[in-house]
Amino acid sequence: EVQLQASGGGLVQPGGSLRLSCAASGFALDDYGIGWFRQAPGKEREGVSYINVGRKFYADSVKGRFTISRDNAKNTVYLQMNSLKPEDTAVYSCARASRLLSSLWRAPPNYAYWGQGTLVTVSS
User: Fold this and answer.
1) What is the phi/psi pair of residue 108, to 5°?
2) Strand ranges (DSSP E) for the chain?
3) How many CB atoms lie within 10 A of CB 97?
4) DSSP code for 112
């Protein structure tokens, strides 16, 4: 059974950092792309970052501040978030793509499996 478990959210002050984890089970990470998405209250789900073999993508709003990585031995994908801003406040979820993606990584319909979200709150 394919499962994704996101964790690592919390309350952080502006300028602070958090590292989110997405633990995968039921499949091998290096066979699929994994995306991070976020959804703030009253807003649509937004693609934040994506990783597959040899490729990483970022939304313009997080480029230079967030870093996606993966540990195949632990079957886990990470999202290191630095210089956090109040506008980064959202529920963050990870998802497994149905196929290898490039320009279409931001589109939620291209993801077949989703984990539950973890709340990130950036506030002083």
Assistant:
1) -55, -35
2) 3-7, 10-12, 18-25, 34-39, 46-52, 55-58, 66-71, 76-81, 90-97, 111-114, 118-122
3) 20
4) E
2: enclosing H helix or E strand: none
DSSP 100: -
Token digits for 46? 């937004």
Label each residue of 40-62 as H, E or C: CCCCCCEEEEEEECCEEEECCCC
Whose structure tokens read 């632990």? 74
Which residues pair with residue 38 across a beta bridge? 46, 92
> What is the largest distance, in Å, between two alpha-carbon atoms of the chain?
40
Q: Which of 1, 21, 26, 18 is nearest to 116 (CA)?
A: 21
Render pLDDT for 30-80 as a digit per residue (tens, 0 to 9).
889 999 999 999 999 999 999 998 799 999 999 999 999 999 999 999 999
Q: What is the pLDDT of residues 80-97, one digit of tens each?
A: 999 999 999 999 999 999
The two tokens of residue 52 are: 């597959």
Q: How far is 5 from 20, CA to CA, in rounded Å?
A: 10
